[in-house]
Design a protein that fits this description.
By secondary structure, this protein is mainly beta. The chain contains no helices and 11 strands. The chain has strands spanning about 1-5, 10-15, 20-25, 35-40, 45-50, 60, 70-75, 80-85, 90-100, 115, 120-125.
């Protein structure tokens, strides 16, 4: 089993920045891909970004490309999401997720084996 705990959410004005963190523990050696997805009220779940541990490949949703950066510190078993130039459309609960696969379907509902409890991000105009 793998446990994921997010932190770093909050409220920010449009144009601001936030950094989310996700601490992983447990059988992390089984994980090949970690990522973030978000869920806004009344909207479909959206994959935001993912990183494949095998070669460090990163993937981004078009809606965040150029504004968000996913990274991981393997020594600390921690995943990050740096979010810049935030806008109100980024308001959602953000979830950290992990899968034993190679980032399969990360942008959709995803084949995530584990996910965190979520952290709220609110961007005001």
């Amino acid at each position: 089993q793998v446990q994921l705990v997010e932190s770093g959410g909050g409220s920010v004005q449009a144009g601001g920045s936030l950094r989310l963190s996700c601490a992983a523990s447990g059988e992390t050696f089984t994980i090949n891909c970690m990522g973030w997805f978000r869920q806004a009220p009344g909207k479909e779940r959206e994959g935001v970004a993912a990183v494949y541990s095998g070669d460090g490949s990163t993937y981004y949703a078009d809606s965040v490309k150029g504004r968000f950066t996913i990274s991981q510190d393997n020594a600390k078993n921690t995943l990050y999401l740096q979010m810049n130039s935030l806008n109100p459309e980024d308001t959602a609960v953000y979830y950290c997720a992990a899968q034993i696969f190679k980032c399969m379907n990360w942008a959709g509902r995803g084949l995530w084996n584990y996910r965190g409890q979520g952290t709220q991000v609110t961007v005001s105009s």
